[in-house]
Structure formats: C-alpha cells, structure tokens
Amino acid sequence: MSQFAINVLFVGASFALYIGIAIWAKAGSTKDFYVAGGGVHPITNGMAIGADWMSAASFISMAGLIAAGGYANSTFLMGWTGGYVLLAMLLAPYLRKFGKFTVPEFIGDRFYSKQARLVAVICLIVASVTYVIGQMAGAGVAFSRFLEVDATTGLIIAAVVVFFYAVLGGMKGITYTQVAQYIVLIIAYTIPAVFISLELTGNPLPPLGLFSTHEASGEPLLSKLNEVITALGFNQYTADVDNKLNMVLFTLSLMIGTAGLPHVIIRFFTVPKVADARWSAGWALVFIGLLYLTAPAVASMARLNLVTTVYPDMAGQVENVEDAATNPILYENRPEWIRTWEETGLIQYEDKNGDGRIQFYNDKADYSDRGWAGNELSVNNDILVLANPEIANLPGWVIGLIAAGGLAAALSTAAGLLLAISSAISHDLIKGSINPHITEKGELMAARISMSVAIVVATYLGANPPGFAAQVVALAFGIAAASLFPALMMGIFSKRVNNYGAIAGMLTGLAFTLVYIFVYKGWFFIPGTNNLADTPENWVLGISPLSIGSIGAIINFAVAFGVSKATAEPPQEIQELVESVRYPKGAGTAVDH
C-alpha cells in the first residue's frame, strides 16, 4: 500500500469517527449547544479540555519553534502550562459557580451593563478569530503534505469536517468528538517520539531520552546537539536568553492570555458541579502533561536528525566537528522526505554557490572561506513534528497516524474557538442586545448560522496567516491577556470595580495591544515610522509584539481601577454577588436568560 493510501486511510477513518459522533450527539436545545447539557463527567471533560487546549500550535508548531530556537523558545511551554494552572485555580471554579453559558454573559451581569457585555463580545471575537487562523493554517500544512493537495484545498476539507460536527452537535457534539481527537493526537504524538528516542538514545521514554546519551556518538544528547549546530554558526541550543525582560513578559502574556481565552473557559460550564470543575482541571492537566513533557524531546531530536541528515559526517563520533561540517550531502542525493516536503513548498532549496551540495547554516556566520555563499535550505518550522517520522525512517503507518493526529489537534481547537465565537454572537449579541425575546429554536438557528459564517471567515484567513501557527496563536493570547483576563479577575476578586472601569479597561487594553501589534507586524502604517520593522532593535524597550499583551493587561487593570475609583461604587447587590461567587459552595445550574 502506498504512503498516500495509508494517509488517506488514517485521516479518513478519523474524520468518519468525528462525524459519526456528531450525528450521535446532535444538539437539540441551546443548553446542549452551549454547555453539552451541563452533565459531562469530569474525566471526559478533562480529556476534551486537553484536546481543546492542545491545538495545532501545541501539536505542530510548538516543537518546531523549540527546535529552531532551543531554550529561548521554551517560553511557549512555560507560559501555556503555567497559564492553565492559573486558569484552573483562579477562574474556572468561580465562573462555574456563577452558572452562565458564556464569558461575555458573566462580564455583562457582573458589571451590570449591556455595554460591558458587548465590549466583551468584541474582545472575544478578535482574540478567537486570531487564534483560529493558526488552527486553520496548521490544518493546511498537514493536508498539503499528507493528502498531497494544496493548502487551500486542505483548508476547505478541514472546514467541511468542522462544519459537520461543530454546527450539528454544538458543545455536545464537540465534547465527545474532542475525546476521540485527544486519543488520536496523543497516540500520534507519542508513538513516533518513542521510536525516535529509542533510535537515538536507546531510551523508550522521550522526556528521559532528552537527558540520555546519544548512542551514535557516546555524548549526552543535548551536548551533541550543541556541538553540531554551533559548527554551523547557530547559537547553542541550551544558550541563555539575553533579553530577560521580553522573555518574562512573553511568558506572562501566554499565562494570563491562557486564563482569558473563552474557548477553554466555557468547557468548565459543561460539568454538573463546582467540584467537578476542579476535578476536570486536574484531569486535563494530566492529559496535557503527557504531550507537554514529550515536546522538548521531540524538538531536540528533530533538530539533531535534520542537521545530521544534511551533514552525515556529524552523525556519529567526530574528531573534528568543523571539518565534518564542511561536507553536506549532494542535493541529488537528498532523502525522500526532503523531496516530498519540497512539493508542498514548505522546504525550499537554492544552490547559491553552484556546487550541487546543500549548505544549511546560519547566514549570520561568515563561512565564505568554505566556499559558501549563503544558506541554501529553507525549512518551515511547522513541518518538523509532521516530518519527524519520515526523517527517522519510521514505518508508513506511523506517518499516517501523525497525519491524523496533527489534523485532530488543529480541528479540535478550531471547533472550540468557533463555538465560542458563535455563542458570543447568538447568545450575547443577538439575544443579549438585539432581540432579547428570540425563541430557543431561533437562538439555536442563529448559533448555527453564526458558526457557519465564522468557519468561512476562519478558512479565508487561514489561507493567508500572518506567521507560523504558534506565532499567530501567541498574538491571540496577547489580545486575550490585555482585554478579557483583567475583566474576569476583577469581576471575581474586586467588589469595587464598576461598569465604567471594566469597559474603559477592556477597550484601552485591547486598543493599546492591537496598535502595537499592527505597527510592529507591518499591518498598520503610521507616518514617519517607516523603519519600524519587527526586529528587537525597533521594539519599545525590547518588548516584542508577541509579549505586549502583558503590558496591555497592566494598563487594563490600571485604567479600570482608576476609573472605578473616580466613579460610584457598584450596587450593593452586585457586591454581594461577587462575595457569593468567590466562595463556590453550590453548583449553580447554567441558566438561559
């Protein structure tokens, strides 16, 4: 059986499973559509949260970024895992106690303002649409290789699949689909990692293999990796970070952005009791940890395999690594995996010195004495996890499995985000502001229509993403950090913040963050600032657009407290409501009003 046929078999079987679950779990009411009827078991919910959480950025792009940047990009791991703990401890149980369907509904009721609810809808849509771009882009990367179609066709296929199980089933269909997707993606991620860890270190546990001996050279794996990449002019893989301020702010932005992303928060509304929300968080952390503990090993081993594929002389024991680094393979002898990925355009080769060999190195290093005229191999970060089985010459069924896993990761999170968007439009915008007397049947139809429109928009934007999947996702986290997280925290833990403060804080934090991102990403031009390229030299105080969400959050808090201090206190019943939410003794059934 050809590799293409194997890929189609694995991907097709997984898609059939997802659509079958959606038909079985079709939503019949708004409560089914928004919170899966409110009766999901904590273990089931924990697994669904794991799938919702581990997006294309986690599955496809995170390990690629760590592979490319080493320790410096471990901020993705620290920020996302730390943020999940923050969400589980500080927000989830209290929001579950409040007992509403959506995040904007909580903000609207807590700050006793339809305007606050509307602003929260805007913030939610901006953050979620930005996030879903990364998921659709990741799905396009996976499809373009494994189903041998162009990225646009891949996006359309992904959109059709999401349409069936998300629009039909709502949260009920998505929940049980995400359980299946978690099982697919975690198996797909760990099995290749086990094979590769065994091959390189003899240790079947990838997290331990990372700190084991590289069998071919007899050196510690990370020492071997440092040795081969520094010979090619790259920084040490384990090198420290120069800009500590930016690293801290980026990690903080990911953490608080995590806690402010509504597609994860709404999962905690699906369980019967507050105690179940806490158990869901615990189980989700276990399921998430299985992948996040494996990712650093996958990244390191992928980077080592990539370099030693191009420079075979550096694969084993090397007396003089500098000499070994001068002998890359001939382009005509490149392995099959490079040939197949070249067809997607995600690997590109240009013979700059005309010697027919692949010079793969850091352009900032001057290796003209070797006869090199510049780096000749361009590798998209997003492909490393997907290409890992091929790089390591693993069986065809493993490649098919990781194809299904990558698509499961992208589609599971995309479905959760699209549900958050459609819920905000149908429940918070249409029912909350435009037509409060809409029937349940009408609201359910509005939810399905808005999700359908959101899928079309997400597919279009996914075809033209402004960066790698994980980078686009990081922008979404920054937006959520600057807008929604402060409002949620102040709504739970401060009785003094009023409607004026919340609205002013959200708008200021969102506007500041978007302007900074748009200016330094080149999407918005300010006269006289034509040199503001997205480089550390131009960033204000060395703070990158990916990190600015933490500053936006600080501004949000400051403005909200300042405006609240200058205006009247919230009504007494709102202060009592805050007090009751902070002590989640009861379950509080999600209600529709």
From TrEMBL:
GO molecular function term, any single one: symporter activity
Q: How does it sit in the membrane?
A: Multi-pass membrane protein
- Listed GO CC annotations: plasma membrane
* GO biological process terms, semicolon-separated: carboxylic acid transport; sodium ion transport
User: Which chain regions cross the lipid bilayer?
Assistant: 6-25, 46-71, 77-95, 116-134, 146-167, 179-198, 247-269, 281-302, 397-421, 442-462, 468-488, 500-519, 539-563
Q: Which UniProt keywords apply?
A: Cell membrane, Ion transport, Membrane, Sodium, Sodium transport, Symport, Transmembrane, Transmembrane helix, Transport
Pfam families this protein is in? SSF
The record's listing under PROSITE patterns reads: NA_SOLUT_SYMP_2, NA_SOLUT_SYMP_3
> Into which family does the record put it?
Belongs to the sodium:solute symporter (SSF) (TC 2.A.21) family.
Q: What is this protein called?
A: Cation/acetate symporter
- Tell me what organism the protein belongs to: Halomonas organivorans
